Amino acid sequence: MTAPEQAAVLVDPDEHRGGTGTARFVLQKVVEAVISILLVIVLFFFLFRMLPGDPVTTMIRDRPTDPRQIAELRERLGVDKPVLQQFGDYLGKLLHGDFGTSYLEQRPVADMIAERLWPTVLLVGSATVLAVVLGLWLGTRAAWRRDSAFDRTQTGLALTLWSVPQFWLGLILLVATNGLFPSRGMHSPDAAPDVFSQTLDVLHHLVLPCVTLLAVFYAQYMLIMRSSLLGEMNADYLTTARAKGLRDDLVRRRHAVPNALLPTTTLVFMQFGMVVSGAVSVEAVFSWPGLGQLTYQSLHGPDLPVLQGVFVVLAGAVVLMNLLAELLYRVLDPRVRTS
Predict the structure, then answer these.
(1) What string of DSSP letters covers 247-292?
(2) E strands, the chain, where?
């Protein structure tokens, strides 16, 4: 075999098109993400039109209003138009960043979402970070001590918490703490105005809703990490590492855990995207002033522009986090890049 032929054999044919393959993969995922968001916008627009209740009737409740005023109000809100025309108007505004105006509060929906976004990010973000640390640690220990009393106890507890409805767990915590922590809102009216006192006050209010979400979130991470690590424990590379004389804790920490983290990485990104769906019931129980509470309040109208705006934000967050998870998975796992 000549030297050029040997060189051709040694060169990976995928290496030359690696950059093109990566660009094609990223472009494909971005296009899929855009299509997903568009489908969600269409789905929720027509789905919300099927909700019971009339926003105009809600707005004029307990107010003497003649039919002419009702007709003018319907025209001003645009609900007198055919549904397809309403959708065209809504989509045109949405493409320009306009989420519409709230039926009930007569305020821009974008401003209302911006006001409620930080409390939800604080609540869900705190619970998720704590759940990731606790769940990965307990899942690793449980898998490495398979069938021990610790493993059986932690697995049973995680399965129980994973199956418990969040609102029910929140109510149980309210009863169990018996007024030890605030049960409503995010601020106390009698808190001192300085930054330190305000921060402590918010953290005090954060305890119960955060623990409620933490209990459910950590259970997911714990069980998935345990299952993933159990799948790696009999792998050949771990046997090789032990044969080289590495201590058991080094084999676990340096070899088994990094590979077992891959499925959990996807779950973490997806959980950050589910800021509303994971917090609606909890924010309703504790009157936490976030996007979940805003959604709950808007359902009573129904305040359609607010509902549509919140769910567009939710869908965008979920799709974006899924996109980042898929791209990160390709970076972390060489098998995905070569598939």
Answers:
(1) -HHHIIIIIIHHHHHHHHHHHHHHHHH-TTTTTHHHHHHHT--SHH
(2) none
Per-residue DSSP letter, 188: -
Task: Give the residue from 147, 148, 137, 146 showing the smallest Cα distance to 253.
Answer: 137
Q: Are 291 and 310 in contact (CB under 8 A)?
A: yes
Please tell me the number of Cα atoms within 13 Å of 322 on its side-chain side.
15
Place of tokens 């069938």: 147
Phi and psi (nearest 5°) for 101? -120, 140
Structural tokens at position 121: 């990010």
Phi and psi at residue 108, to the nearest 5°? -60, 135
Alpha helices in 49-108 (DSSP H): 55-59, 67-77, 83-95
The one-digit pLDDT tens for each residue of the chain (339 residues) are 554 444 444 444 444 445 567 788 888 888 988 898 889 888 888 887 777 766 676 666 666 666 777 777 777 777 777 888 888 888 888 888 888 888 878 888 889 988 888 888 888 888 888 988 999 899 888 888 888 999 999 999 999 988 888 888 888 988 888 878 888 888 888 878 888 888 888 899 899 999 998 888 888 888 888 888 887 777 777 777 777 777 767 777 676 777 777 777 777 777 666 655 557 788 888 888 888 888 888 877 778 888 888 888 888 888 888 888 888 777 766 655 555
